[in-house]
Design goal:
By secondary structure, this protein is an alpha/beta fold. The protein contains 15 helices and 19 strands. Strands 12-11-8-13-16-17-18-19 form an eight-stranded mixed beta sheet, with helices on both faces. Strands 2-1-3-4-5 form a five-stranded parallel beta sheet, sandwiched between helices.
Length: 401
């Protein structure tokens, strides 16, 4: 199951320079399982060829309202009825104006009038054109009609101007489409997620840490947000961006993470401990850089608090999910942690296998409860996270009822 599995998307392209990014958008939406039919305006064809879009979408491109052969294949009304979602990217000032006026003077605007599917537009134009009063009035009207306005972004423009008017990046558009198409089954829930590594200082310039990239925890945050939850992400230092809409709490050490977790967890519905927390910290952090001297040196380490176990011992504890990264005896160790840490679920991954787990884009999990286990097979961390979030919710609802 992919995020856009079997979603039927009409992707309308109008005539802007950002049209050159659309083959990549089509590819990425297809990767998420969407079925794409491309509709191009005359202007769009000046920037990019229908053949390219046909090749990447795997379907004939529709570009004419008055083409008898094309109408025989999938006519404009059929296309309008077929769509679960219409995305227009890039959406120029011109098509925005024509949509607002309710015109039907080409295939794309006609489909927009003839559909009952939701419509999203990704505006792309010169910053002056974007700020122009007619454009702003049109955008306001479209928005009041429930057209989703995705962007524009800000930055350098093809014409050399700098400002608002750039089409959103392909990544952002895929995220918005995925968010829009996901059922908001977690509405009203608050998820607190720990993610990434912790850093245990040795002196002002050195620390002890591990290879956790934060990708799994961030993917869980993204999937929970997408399903409508409020998300607090308590994160150790990582090199990835927090999902838009999450409340990001940056921490360094395990003790800082512990403090923040105990602060946010009591108000939450579900607590997911995905962070690779250092088990020990340096007993005495040197205030000055330690100088090289003897051949050997010793650091005294003391145990850190177990964050997930401490949250699980709260009176008003949320539904508790832990992770177990193991290299051997996975089930035995995972079940041991489930009981010892007083968790509702534990998601175990085999970090000894290459291509999954730490730092990788892919993962596979086995999720244990006290009475059963569920396999989430190898897939990219977004897909694994989506399945895990849904599974956690099922167990949470079962416990609650
Ligand atoms: O390190 P360990 O294998 O015990 O981690 C199992 C689970 O406990 C993970 O969910 C991890 O995030 C959590 N943990 C924690 N605080 C620690 C150590 C681990 O929350 N100090």
């Amino acid at each position: 199951m992919q995020i856009l599995q079997d979603k039927k998307i009409v992707l309308g392209i109008s005539g802007g320079i950002a049209a050159y990014k659309i083959p990549e958008l089509v590819r990425r939406l297809k990767e998420q399982g969407a079925d794409i039919r491309v509709v191009m305006t005359e202007g769009a064809k000046a920037f990019i060829t229908p053949l390219t879009l046909q090749a990447v979408s795997g379907n004939a491109v529709a570009d004419s309202l008055l083409d008898t052969a094309a109408e025989l294949a999938m006519g404009h009304i059929e296309l309008a009825k077929w769509a679960d979602l219409i995305i227009i990217a890039p959406a120029t000032a011109d098509i925005i104006a024509r949509m607002t006026a309710g015109m039907a003077n080409d295939l794309l605007t006609t489909i927009c009038l003839a559909t009952s599917a939701p419509i999203a537009i990704a505006p792309a134009m010169n910053q002056q054109m974007w700020h122009a009063l007619p454009t702003q009035a049109n955008i306001k009207t479209l928005s009041e009609r429930n057209v989703q306005i995705w962007g524009p972004g800000s930055g350098e423009q093809a014409c050399g101007d700098v400002g608002l008017g750039r089409m959103l990046d392909v990544d952002e558009l895929v995220t918005l489409a995925s968010d829009f198409c996901t059922d908001k089954y977690l509405q009203g829930q608050h998820w607190v997620i720990t993610a990434g590594p912790t850093r245990e200082a040795i002196d002002p310039v050195r620390y002890i840490s591990n290879h956790s990239s934060g990708k799994m925890g961030y993917a869980i945050a993204q999937a929970a947000l997408r399903a409508g939850a409020t998300v607090t992400l308590i994160s150790g230092p990582v090199n990835i961006k927090a999902p838009v809409g999450s409340q990001l709490i940056n921490v360094n050490s395990a003790e800082e993470m512990h403090e923040q977790a105990l602060k946010f967890a009591p108000k939450s519905t579900i607590f997911v401990a995905c962070a690779a927390v250092a088990d020990y910290r340096v007993a005495q952090i040197a205030t000055q850089k330690i100088k090289k001297s003897n051949d050997a040196m010793q650091l005294e380490l003391v145990k850190n608090h177990d964050i997930v176990a401490d949250v699980a011992s709260l009176d008003n504890k949320p539904f508790m999910v832990g992770f177990a990264a193991e290299t051997q005896n996975i089930e035995q160790y995972a079940r041991g942690k489930l009981i010892r840490k007083n968790l509702d679920l534990i998601a175990a991954n085999d970090v000894a296998k290459s291509g999954q787990g730490f730092n990788s884009n892919d993962n596979a999990l086995t999720v244990y409860s006290a009475i059963d286990k569920t396999d989430i097979p190898l897939a990219n961390k977004q897909i694994v996270a989506q399945r895990l979030v849904s599974l956690i919710n099922q167990h949470y609802l079962a416990k609650k009822n």
